[in-house]
Amino acid sequence: MKNWIRILIFPLLLGQFFCAEDTNYVTEEDKKNLVLAIAAKASECGGVGPSFVAFPIEKKVERLSVQGCTLAILQAECPFQTYPLICIEIYKVDYPHAGPVIK
Question: How far is Cα 49 from Cα 43, in angstroms, rounded to an integer?
Fold first, then answer.
């Protein structure tokens, strides 16, 4: 009986240790880096930044998109009044009269 229990539990333990988490989607660390980049750029530009914080709420936002947004913010020129286009594309939202239509 004990052998059967070991046989059943062993694969479950192996699955816990060797299953990799999905790294395609945004993590808490990526969100923190984005907020820090926004704060750093606003501070660098005299404390002025966009009127809202671009923060991914959805869990299915691609990680590379958020990392690209973070880098684009850090490389943006002052005055920092709007987000780079890559940050807006995270939300797949079409803003009237703001460049190409995003579908």
Answer: 8
Tens digit of each residue's pLDDT (9 = 90 or more) over 54-100: 777 666 788 888 899 999 999 999 999 999 988 888 876 555 555 55
Whether residue 47 is contained in a domain is answered as yes
Domain assignment of residue 53, given as a range: 22-89
Residue 40 lies in a domain: yes
Where do the H-state alpha helices sit in the chain? Answer: 2-18, 28-44, 63-75, 85-89
Global confidence as pTM:
0.66
Does the residue 84 lie in any domain? yes
